[in-house]
Write a structure and sequence with these properties.
The chain has eleven helices and four strands, in the order αααααβαααβαααββ. The protein is mainly α.
Length: 273
């Protein structure tokens, strides 16, 4: 077990070297404890992903494709987007603590993670990945729903995000504009999955960072109309009704539990088409 867990440590050391080694002098980060190195690397990586995806998508839909996807009077103000960035940046150090903690648990041998796909084969890897994604979809749906249904959680945590409730206030930068604990709670299913589902470690890390890109996409107010994806058309309804479309990547959980509302006609859907 000790030899196998060293593979995870070697992976995180490699990630740390790639990210921090290319941006910081070695004497600033190499003497730091391994856990702190991982947290700093996640913070740098998370911040870069947030700004890169946010600015790139805002440039595309608000300037390059101006009036194509979003009418001019529905483009969020610079002030609104700046406030979203400030909220997200205040929370970012806390967001990045979660993957650092999950990495520590993996490196300690407490989870069901595996380091090499060759250890189980591609067929098993893809099967476990599907189970992982379904579990995360289920977990995030119910975590998000309870953040609405349990009034103190909504008032003190989730309401921070729901001040953005219409097209001219929602933007890709709103994707991570949460109270820190709110953002962590919604990502916790990714960590719980590690204890019950055999999970490829690097895939887990990649999926956590994909969250930042995905949340930017579903806050751009553009209805992509790709079934069964929970795109921005569905998520914009969530921000206006507060009672529908709690799902994450897909609409399946909302359909199963009766909370789906379709952007086409903006009416509740009783059956899946």
């Amino acid at each position: 077990m000790e030899d196998y867990t060293q593979l995870f440590v070697d992976e995180t050391n490699l990630f740390n070297s790639i990210v921090m080694g290319s941006l910081l002098p070695d004497n600033l980060w190499k003497p730091l404890p391994h856990f702190l190195q991982s947290w700093i690397r996640n913070y740098i990586g998370g911040t870069l992903v947030y700004f890169f995806s946010g600015f790139l998508w805002c440039f595309y839909i608000y300037f390059w494709k101006r009036n194509v996807y979003v009418p001019k009077d529905a483009i969020p103000s610079t002030k609104a987007m700046l406030l979203q960035i400030i909220v997200a940046m205040k929370a970012m150090p806390w967001y990045c603590a979660l993957p650092a903690v999950s990495e520590y648990m993996v490196e300690s041998g407490w989870t069901m993670c595996f380091s090499r796909i060759s250890d189980i084969g591609w067929q098993s890897y893809l099967g476990y990945l599907m189970v992982y994604l379904v579990f995360v979809e289920f977990g995030i749906y119910w975590m998000h729903r309870e953040l609405h249904d349990i009034k103190p959680l909504y008032k003190y945590l989730h309401a921070t995000h729901h001040i953005y409730n219409k097209q001219n206030t929602l933007s890709p930068f709103a994707g991570l504009a949460f109270h820190p604990l709110d953002g962590i709670l919604q990502a916790v299913p990714h960590v719980i999955a590690l204890f019950i589902i055999p999970t490829h470690f690097m895939t887990h890390i990649v999926l956590l960072f994909i969250e930042a890109i995905w949340t930017a996409n579903i806050h751009d107010c553009i209805n992509g109309k790709v079934w069964p994806v929970m795109g921005a058309g569905y998520h914009t309804i969530h921000h206006t009704t507060y009672r529908h479309n709690y799902g994450h990547y897909t609409i399946w959980m909302d359909w199963m539990f009766g909370t789906l509302r379709d952007p086409i006609g903006d009416s509740p859907k009783k059956v899946m088409e």
